[in-house]
Amino acid sequence: MKQKLCVLGATGSIGDSTLDVAARHPDLFEIHALVANIRVDEMLARVERFRPNKVVMNDEAAAQQLRQQIVSRGLSTQVFGGQAAAIDAACEADTVMAAIVGAAGLAPTIAAARLGRRILLANKEALVMAGPLFVQACRDSNALVLPIDSEHNAIFQCLPVSTEAIAKRQALVPSDLSRVSHLVLTASGGPFRDYTLQQMESVTPEQAVAHPNWAMGRKISVDSATLMNKGLELIEACLLYGLNADKIEVVVHPQSIIHSMVQFIDGSLLAQMGQPDMRTPIAHCMAWPDRFEAGVPPLNLLKVARLDFKEPDELKFACLKLARQAYSIGPAAPCVLNAANEIAVSAFLERKIGFLDIAHVNEIVMNLLGHQLAPQSIEDVLALNDQSRQAAQQEVDRFTNSHFAITQSQHPLRDLTE
Ligand code: NAD
Ligand code: MG
After folding, report:
1. Which site in 74, 83, 129, 306 is 20 to 30 Å from 375, CA atoms measured?
2. pTM of the complete model
3. Ligand 1 neighbourhood includes 188 CB (under 6 angstroms)
4. Atom nearest to 223 CA in ligand 1
């Protein structure tokens, strides 16, 4: 029997890699639904190539435009608009690739998890913001959550899994951590790994999204440059594997060949290696507990030649420290931090604030709102997310105005001299 696949975030980088892998195994997967935000042409190209049963555009006007294009081409794919339709599409599938970027991915992902669907989790923000509520929802419905994020997937591959866990369909990530001493998350360090703080002050969005090893969406690329991505991943690892943050070490490994490691109590350190190509973790989760071909060439160790490791500098990369703090404060703080970061990153991409201001906005908003009691429901999570986004927007506006003031005062004769 083919699995019905829904790809949330189908026009993105993970969406593309997922469709590439699924197309290699048409005997195993039926593309049930593709879900994206607003870009009609990009979705149309995927509809023509992969012929899904349905597509959903979050933006209603984009859905309307796409519907016209699909009808005029004589294609049979049905088109829907809005978030409720995205939730329906996810719930109808057997397997859901959760790859919408940011908090927008929470609603369809958690709806499918509540029905016990197989969730391939790329959208780390959804897990970070809802935290224990997300984990409990999966436990209650016995939903299997397989980690797509390369680090968490590497850890999953290094951990033992009992055949009983597979047979019983153990909820969440089915793995045994009883003989684990700690986890080691690797980080490339991003494009500014060797920059001084002074150099980082003036980096541009173009420099920040040019990741040295991975081709990814813009938001996660900026998160990789600030190391916020590693911070979100630290929280993601705590939640998926039920560990405290002090059981997770972060190591900078510039080559991105070792995707993460598990240290066992007998001294063994197991690492998963491979090309920096997301089709490997995606194929691993799509085929699990089997394996199948992903289109990724084998690793040539002679070409790699060396693997380097160093400690992350949390003074330069304050977002990593903030994430560690957020997890120790309690479940509201990661939600607040994630929301603030989404606003700060888009303000940076729109050139409204500088690169180092991202961490400042995050810290201010986390200190302001992160110490609240734990949200009791997904509705509470969404309300806290909205409140934190608003607070972050105010900080961004304040930064923008004060930068403007500084720029003007530093260059009082600018208009006259130009
Ligand atoms: P991307 O920017 O390339 O794609 C984002 C996708 O989300 C697009 O299809 C967009 O249309 C869709 N989207 C955005 N807002 C939406 C909304 N409101 N409703 C419906 N769809 C919406 O991002 P990406 O790099 O593919 O990353 C996706 C997720 O996977 C992120 O959470 C990221 O952290 C995670 N992830 C990505 C990688 C990677 O290598 N790209 C690795 C690990 C984890
Ligand atoms: Mg990752």
Report:
1. 83
2. 0.95
3. no
4. 34
